[in-house]
Amino acid sequence: MLYLFPFLALLLIAGVLMVIRSGNRSPGKYLYETRCQNCHQEDGSGLKALIPPLAASDWLFENQDTLACIIRHGLSGPIHVNGVFYDEVMPANEKLRPGQIMNIINYINRSWGNEHEKIRLREVKKRLEKCEH
After folding, report:
1. Rounded to whole angstroms, how far apart are CA atoms 133 and 128?
2. Are 55 and 111 in contact (CB under 8 A)?
3. What are the two backbone dihedrals, phi and then psi, of residue 51, each rounded to the nearest 5 degrees?
4. Fewer CB within 10 Å of terminal CB in the chain, N or C?
5. pLDDT tens digits, residue range 23-67?
6. Is the CATH number of domain 26-129 1.10.760.10?
7. Where are the domains of the chain?
8. pLDDT tens-place string over residues 93-117
9. Helix 27-35 to helix 5-22 angle, to the nearest 10 degrees?
């Protein structure tokens, strides 16, 4: 049993460091900041005519069923958001676990004036099983 102590101590330290790194941010906000914000910006406004906004996005509202797949596998091809066409490739995040994808979606869905329903983990898992990639 003593041989497990170093392993458990490392897990505890890793957890504490993750909490310290993320500060008071929710897991979804932290993941957004580290995975999405570089392109979609801190306020969800996107990047001019290159990267679509997530804030007040008609496309986001109409495509809730595909968000998990898009976050996991990326997106290519033109999309129409708030009257503007965007055609930049969104990279895949294939290493994100379903719970992390859920946290990102819930953060995006409740930020910048967005008022979409929260999604549950079982729903994210179901949607990921249906991804076409």
Report:
1. 10
2. yes
3. -120, 125
4. N
5. 557 999 999 999 999 999 999 999 999 999 999 999 999 999 999
6. yes
7. 26-129
8. 999 999 999 999 999 999 999 999 9
9. 80
